[in-house]
């Protein structure tokens, strides 16, 4: 049983944008060619990373859709840390409103409550350590010439193989239990306009 009782399985998905090299969270207006979208199911700690091609809302929402298909379902709440473009002066940005309507998900923008930031920072520090360990030798020796996406996939796999918080199970094992609580994906993967 997951010792992380603060979260219910399949309830929340957290996303933020990080700098690929430093692992530090950045705001969407500070994105660059080396920016990565990071997502985590806080119940299991199961994590996902993907490079962003550019910093526009359509690219971010496309990546969020890819995350839903990667995790195999839809949580009830998408909690976005540091993605300020979700809210414009006119209200919710159309790209995010369309995403929320199509997937029937609540999208919450914000800088995060202290407890959420602490948990996210623990995961990001593990990402930094994993990234650093791999960059310093093992990955370079085994996967010389691999694409940056291949490298990130390897980092993600290593991170998800680690135990989560005070658990004896890995993030991947906890996720296999959590997956049943995610809502089903729609048949058509394209966002309806």
Written description of the protein model:
The protein is 39% helix and 18% strand. With 193 residues, it is of the alpha/beta class. The strands form two sheets. Strands 1, 2, 3, 4, 5 and 8 form a six-stranded mixed sheet that branches. A two-stranded antiparallel ribbon has the order 6-7. Strand 3 (35-40) and strand 4 (47-51) form a beta hairpin. Helix 3 (114-142) crosses helix 4. The protein is globular, with a radius of gyration of 16 Å. The N and C termini lie far apart (41 Å). The mean pLDDT is 76.
Task: Please mark out the parts with pLDDT under 50 across 5 or more consecutive residues, or reply none.
Answer: none
Distance between the termini: 41 Å
Helix vs. strand class? alpha/beta
Number of strands: 8
**What spatial form do the alpha-carbon principal axes imply?**
globular
- Indicate the proportion of strand residues: 15-25%
Q: How would you state the average pLDDT, rounded?
A: 76
Number of separate helices: 5
Biggest sheet record = 6 strands, mixed
Percentage of residues in helical conformation: 25-40%
SSE string = EEEEHEEEHEHHH
Rg result:
16 Å
Summarize the structure.
By secondary structure, the protein is α/β, with parallel strands linked by helices. It is built from five helices and eight strands, in the order E-E-E-E-H-E-E-E-H-E-H-H-H. It starts with 11 loop residues before the first strand and ends in a 15-residue tail after the last helix.
What's the helix and strand layout?
Layout: E1 12-19, E2 25-26, E3 35-40, E4 47-51, H1 57-71, E5 77-81, E6 87-88, E7 91-92, H2 94-103, E8 106-110, H3 114-142, H4 148-160, H5 171-178
Parallel strand pairs: 1-5, 5-8
Antiparallel strand pairs: 1-2, 1-3, 3-4, 6-7
Helix pairs in contact: 3-4
